[in-house]
Specification:
Elements lengths: L7 H19 L1 E2 L6 E2 L1 H12 L1 H16 L20 H20 L4 H30 L6 H8 L4 H19 L5
Antiparallel strand pairs: 1-2
């Protein structure tokens, strides 16, 4: 295993995206078990800007700080009890998604299509991690007896318009910040 030596600049960038993800959680609209926030926007952008490892570290730091009790999750919550919230699976997914988007943008040519692909795959993976966790917490832990379609409605379908806007903004900003070429 190779070790990655982090410079002061790297640590600052990781910390910045940890903080941006926390700020994104504070911009929250409660609409059910999973609120609408700007967290995923900053997670997607971290993968593009920081690359795979630094983006992943920024999201691990975010998750660990929240689990340690800092009120940096949505609705100013934090602590180990967050593990039992239906939305916690999405927080776990942030780590995977940040790394994945970073890997895709590192491995492919730097163009708009690559950014679109990375953001689309990242968003799909976020749903693939977050929704089963949500289903488990709601139906097994909280005994809600919800159908798969009800969970999809609460945890995905209602978020698609906002996620589309976040994806467009992520691609636009990622392109501007990283200097990506056109299509």
């Amino acid at each position: 295993m190779t070790t990655m030596k982090l410079s002061t600049k790297d640590i600052t960038q990781i910390g910045m995206f940890t903080a941006l993800t926390a700020i994104g959680a504070f911009i929250s609209i409660p609409v059910g078990p999973v609120p609408i926030t700007l967290q995923s926007f900053f997670v997607l952008l971290s993968g593009i800007i920081l690359g795979s490892r630094k983006a992943m570290y920024s999201q691990i730091a975010y998750l660990l700080l929240g689990l340690a009790g800092l009120p940096i999750f949505s609705n100013f919550t934090g602590g180990l009890q967050a593990v039992f919230k239906p939305s916690f699976g999405f927080l776990i997914g942030y780590i995977v998604v940040a790394y994945l988007i970073g890997k895709i943008t590192e491995a492919k040519s730097n163009n708009t299509n690559n950014l679109i692909l990375a953001v689309f795959i990242g968003t799909a993976v976020l749903y693939l991690i977050g929704l089963p966790y949500m289903y488990y917490i709601l139906n097994i832990m909280l005994d809600k007896n919800l159908s798969i379609m009800q969970v999809l409605n609460m945890g995905m379908f209602m978020f698609i318009p906002g996620d589309t806007i976040k994806a467009v903004l992520t691609v636009y900003l990622g392109k501007k910040i990283k200097g990506y070429r056109g299509l």
